[in-house]
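Appendix B. Raw example, untouched.
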Amino acid sequence: MTLKELLVGGGVRGAGGTTTLYTGSIEAWLPIRNIIDGVVVTKDNRFVKILEVQPVNFALKSADDQRDIVAAFAAYLKIAPDTLQIEARTLPPDTSEYIRRMEEYARNEENEFCREMIEDNIREIARGVAADAVRHRFFLIFQYEANMRARQNTVKAIAERMNEEADTARRYLDACEVVVMEPQYADNFTLKLLYEILNKRTGRRVALPDGVFDMTTVIHGVYEE
């Protein structure tokens, strides 16, 4: 059983191959059935695509550029899915990597006064910046609609059609100077995002490890085949 199956569903298989939902377990209440080709499949059989975008600073653009951006975005809205949502997440800054580097510098610093300055900087970052500063992540979210007309009425075909819709968004939004992220491993990106949303506090401290989909586990008497 993969970690993805444990987090988003697929059931826990008993000795006879049956699927069991344990009372109070994550799988019992989580509305997500699976993630396929970067598309979230919900338990009520909806297909949802989540795209992360890097916005443009509209206020810094010239008047002509602003008009072009508005026109390009209006063109996309005309052909965008009816269910399109624009979501923003406000998060505290991630200073862990900076602090880790500074701690390494402090360990290797031979001058006592320089080492104290570095340690003071670490304390100030943890106390001040982490408390006051924020960062933002922006997302486009849409779901499969009947008028999208996948080639076949199968999960893989619908996921493929959703990813075609994502490519369309990239082409149109490129004209707006908005970058639509294209992660190398879409399933990993989606799983990590859902993990961070569902575990807002824990997700800040404990990140899902790299290669999460290659991990297997032994749980509830289930062994990898």
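End of appendix B.
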